[in-house]
Design the sequence.
């Protein structure tokens, strides 16, 4: 035997996340030695006798390829259990489904529109209520929890939040939520475990739209959840199996494959984003830039303390005399599209796209203006991207 590379022993050979991305979870295939996780494209498993299975019964309950991914994301986020779902929304639905009628969820004032919608249009029908708070304001958030007389059972945030990239102090809010016995849930989609690990900062549950950076290639819809609490793990797994929104084996394989390059992709995404944010910040035709990696950004210091850097999402508004729709009509290399986190750069209009399900009066109140432009910075040549943005801004001039 060439060395100690058995699956269970792999973890003792590395100390860094960069290696875990490649060797973590269930490494390879113990039966054949295949270095890649096989795609177990099966719905069921033959049992040796009644009551004697080989660890697998039915693929909604468990599938070896999905299990490899679930084990990997749990390791990367530092939790005890990972769960993979058919989409980010299925993941969020799975998490919220552990709540009961009469419970209330606090959400931060700019979360993904779909998160708002599932609470506003689906969970309210089951007696689970929500309230929107500016979680960057810890005093205001604690006041809301306190005045809710024990009904707030969960606080769900994004940091950076979609689309204004606001930063919430994760550690401080975890302490507040726990003081009132509320679960603290962090949607870590914009950061990934490579840039931010919310469980280490006190979160009970971390979740992802893995459709984004974790998938990274705009070719799969998926969701992931990790918890560091055994009781929560059991409840989440029960709901996942009962409601059935699981990720398919092939898509699980695609995510395992993508995660192997997460660090390399993220480094380049961020390098490009930092240059583009600085370019926009210095541009006369740009009114405001929202990017947590800029020293002038809201929550810059907090973000520096809880994340590796500012990530690769940027939002901005053009100055008077420039028209956002014209900007979108003029980008060439950058595609006008929903979603984010893929290798290709995308531009989106949150007010009419990702956040259209939030009523205009709430959008205006939280600052999601009709002129807001959101960029998902890809890993193309940054010079080409800046050239494209520059010419689109020039074409957006109304005078
Ligand atoms: C921050 C965030 N969370 C959750 C979701 C929902 O994920 P999915 O589209 O994979 O269902 C999205 C989708 O854009 C998102 O941006």
Sequence:
């Amino acid at each position: 035997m060439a060395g100690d590379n058995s699956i269970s022993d792999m973890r003792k050979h590395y100390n860094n996340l960069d290696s875990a991305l490649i060797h973590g979870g269930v490494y390879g295939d113990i039966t054949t030695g295949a270095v890649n996780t096989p795609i177990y494209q099966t719905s069921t498993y033959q049992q040796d006798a009644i009551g004697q299975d080989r660890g697998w019964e039915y693929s909604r309950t468990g599938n070896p390829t999905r299990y490899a991914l679930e084990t990997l994301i749990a390791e990367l986020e530092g939790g005890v259990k990972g769960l993979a779902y058919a989409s980010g929304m299925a993941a969020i639905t799975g998490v919220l489904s552990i709540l009961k009628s009469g419970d209330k969820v606090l959400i931060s004032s700019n979360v993904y529109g779909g998160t708002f919608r599932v609470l506003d249009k689906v969970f309210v029908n089951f007696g689970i209520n929500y309230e929107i708070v500016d979680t960057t304001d810890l005093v205001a958030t604690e006041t809301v929890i306190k005045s809710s007389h024990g009904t707030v059972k969960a606080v769900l945030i994004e940091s950076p939040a979609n689309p204004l990239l606001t930063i919430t102090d994760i550690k401080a809010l975890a302490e507040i939520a726990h003081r009132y016995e509320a679960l603290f849930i962090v949607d870590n989609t914009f950061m990934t475990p490579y840039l931010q690990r919310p469980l280490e900062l006190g979160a009970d549950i971390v979740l992802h739209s893995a459709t984004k950076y974790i998938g990274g290639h705009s070719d799969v819809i998926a969701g992931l959840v990790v918890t560091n609490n055994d009781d929560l793990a059991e409840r989440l797994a029960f709901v996942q199996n009962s409601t059935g929104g699981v990720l398919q084996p092939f898509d699980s394989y695609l995510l395992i494959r993508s995660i192997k390059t997460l660090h390399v992709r993220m480094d380049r995404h961020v390098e490009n984003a930092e240059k583009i944010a600085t370019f926009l910040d210095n541009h006369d035709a740009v009114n405001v830039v929202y990017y947590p990696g800029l020293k002038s950004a809201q929550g810059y210091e907090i973000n520096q303390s809880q994340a590796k850097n500012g990530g690769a999402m940027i939002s901005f508004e053009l100055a008077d005399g420039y028209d956002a729709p014209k900007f979108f009509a003029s980008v060439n290399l950058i595609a006008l599209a929903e979603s984010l986190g893929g290798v290709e750069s995308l531009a989106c209009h949150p007010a009419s796209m990702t956040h259209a399900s939030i009523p205009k009066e709430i959008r205006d109140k939280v600052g999601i203006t009709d002129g807001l432009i959101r960029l998902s910075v890809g890993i193309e040549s940054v010079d080409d991207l800046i050239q494209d943005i520059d010419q689109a801004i020039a074409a957006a001039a109304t005078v």
In short: The longest helix spans residues 262-281. The longest strand covers residues 152-158. The chain has 14 helices and twelve strands.
